[in-house]
Write a structure and sequence with these properties.
Layout lengths: L3 E9 L6 E8 L14 H24 L2 E3 L24 E5 L7 E4 L1 H6 L7 E3 L3 E5 L3 E6 L11 E6 L1
Parallel strand pairs: 3-4
Antiparallel strand pairs: 1-2, 4-7, 5-6, 5-8, 8-9
The chain binds copper (II) ion.
The site of copper (II) ion has 6 residues, from loops.
GO molecular function, one term: metal ion binding
Protein name: Basic blue protein
InterPro entries: Cupredoxin (IPR008972), Phytocyanin-like (IPR039391), Phytocyanin_dom (IPR003245), Plantacyanin (IPR041844)
Length: 161
């Protein structure tokens, strides 16, 4: 009897639509199946079911990861405070910051720095002009550290569930 086995799970976190690739193949000698042994059919089935459940879990997580372009078509700019309103962010979602890298940047800060518009030494700074940053669970604060920009509203605070 030939049985199809999982050979690998390759979740691809593509930019917009996450896809899941699962490769099936046939292993006549069952040599690639770790728990295979005579008389252990139930163990084999349990393992296959576990593998399927893991695939499903990964798939569901990928489907739920969203990508948001900060500021929408205007990009990462001034007066951003209202942009997060009405959106439901989740940990693992990606924020895309599009901006002119000669004028702006994105600095990951804490609440205090967000409020005071000061980027502390050692803060993580992005400056590619097309930065993709994954949200962590809880509060996420970002500011632009160019002089005066944060004070002009180039700052966002996002809570991810
Ligand atoms: Cu700026």
């Amino acid at each position: 009897m030939e049985v199809a086995y999982f050979s690998g799970l390759e979740p691809e976190l593509a930019e917009r639509d996450a896809t899941l690739k699962v490769t099936f193949f046939k292993s006549p000698d069952m040599s690639l199946f770790p728990l295979e042994s005579p008389g252990r059919g139930s163990a084999r089935h349990a393992t296959v079911i576990t593998a399927l459940l893991v695939c499903l879990l990964v798939y569901v997580q990928n489907v739920h990861a969203a990508i948001y372009t900060v500021g929408d078509s205007a990009g990462w700019s001034f007066n951003m405070a209202s942009w997060p309103k009405g959106k439901r962010f989740r940990a693992g979602d990606t924020l895309v910051f599009n901006y002119d890298s000669t004028a702006h940047n994105v600095v990951v800060v804490n609440r205090g720095s967000y409020s005071s518009c000061t980027a502390p030494a050692g803060a993580k700074v992005y400056n590619s002009g097309n930065d993709q940053i994954k949200l962590v669970k809880g509060q996420n604060f970002f500011i632009c550290s160019s002089v005066g920009h944060c004070q002009s509203g180039m700052k966002i605070a996002i809570t991810a569930m």
